[in-house]
Amino acid sequence: MEDERKTKKQLIEELNCLRNEQIEQTIITSEKFTKAFLQNSIPTIITSVKDSSVVEVSDAFLRLVGLKRHEIIGNTAVKGGFITKEQREIFFNELNKNGHIENLEMEVRPGNGELRHGLFNSVMISINNENCALTTIHDITERKKMEKALRDSEEKFRLLFNSGKDYLAVHLTGKDGQPGRFIQVNDAACEILGYTREEMLKLTHHDVDSAKSSGHMPALIEKLIKNKHILYETEIVTKNGDKIPMEVSLNLFSLNGNRATMCVARDITARKQADKELHLSEIKYRTLHQSMMDAFVSVDMAGNIRDYNKSYLDMLGYGSEEINNLTYKDITPEKWHMIEDEILKKQILTEGYSHIYEKEYRRKDGTVFPVELRTVLMLDTEGVPIGMWAIVRDITERKLAGEILAKSHEKYRLIAENIMDCIALVSKDGIIQYVSNALEPLGYEPEELMNIKGLSITHPDDMERIKTLYRQGIENAWREIAFEMKVRHKNGHYIPMAVRGRTLFDLHGKVMGGFFVARFTEPQKAEITLLDQKSSYNLTDLSPREKEILNWVMEGKTTWDIAKIIYIAESTVKFHIDKIMKKLNAVNRTHAVAIAIRHELLK
Description:
By secondary structure, this protein is α+β, with helices and mostly antiparallel strands. Strand 3 (100-108) and strand 4 (116-127) form a beta hairpin.
């Protein structure tokens, strides 16, 4: 045979060639393994079972632990600092016991100190006749974070679910939308219904919702399937049969592949009661609104009339459709527009309301009449003005009564100012409130005696007697009393007077003070009159007040003007003018001014 004819040398050469090929193949295979090992995307490490030293690591492992190759090779994982001694013992105990490790979860601490979580899988291999562990590490840090976040979220949900004051429950729902048994309920739901949690989990939403018995549930379920959400009001039936009004929200969602519904219900007993009270309040308001004798009106900020009562329509003569097209300025004569604009600006918008003020309205038939009103600003919940309302009163009759009263006052004033006797009104505490002009012979101007004690011009000998009489009159209410007294003249001497008095009452029968009519005795009166006649032609006898008034007459001021300027009554101004004309022998006030100018009595 050919092989037998080969020389020993040839056989040796062939054996060497074959050995070299095997070595080359082994080297190639080893290089491929090494390259695959190093470039593997999964962090991989080979450690000696004998002394736990690191034999080789992949690039991915280096990236995981953040170390250099020379910092790891030949050292142990514990010395490298990325696992603890306790973890190493757990790892090798498991490896020696089973010959492999599957999904052992351990913490890894890279060189930067950031904690990572790894899932370790390891098998035994032999390298150069030495037992080694080939270990792969799957970085599950992000998964752990997600799991923790999920647990935290579930814990928050659990806390929120159970700590909420509202009724919360989850129940399974069939494809037809019919509610199944409860699978989760919170403490509030159990407390509201009076069931234990175990009892609740045996019930369905139908068992506690009165909408089923009322026949409304089918329509609600149809709406829930269509919209995935419904909100409605119903009554929840408690364990003992009580019914609690609730606002219920149902939300359809998917739970582990099944249809489920989240039920959130809120007790609206207080709201229902508030609604009832509000309704009753509105009825009371509307009843008051329509039954008021005074007129009521509200307008928006543009002045458009928005609400009113029957009295307002009757006052103006408009119908509802007509008044709705008007503003408050349409029914107010133009002369009042600027005045009301000032009231709006300075009172209503700044203070929130106006003082009571008067103006005029114009009826549908064109007649104008006086009204009295007070306007109040309306604000929304944010404090923004949205309108105004007012109570309006027709004061036509009051104005007429006032005119009649004023005429009556004027009539009695003329009587009081022109009789020869002196009239005085004195308060309860003896203060003179009014004296007529007939007191002139005492030398005083009427205003000089106003607001002083009556006893201050009484003769000392009469003081105690007059004081006692007046006290008795206040306490016992004189019908009429007559007495004599002496009154001090401005120059200091005393003049006797005959006095008649009676107690003065108000409209309610309460004592206000005393009313007195005094007359000078004849000798003294004649003496005073004679003195007055002798001095009436003396141009220098004009008092400062008379000169002041005559100066205003020269300026063209009327009696009313002068009264307002110097703050006295019109009647007092007339009295002074009459006295001036008498002293100057003037036929009228113009003549009096001319005489005074001629004799240089005026400035």
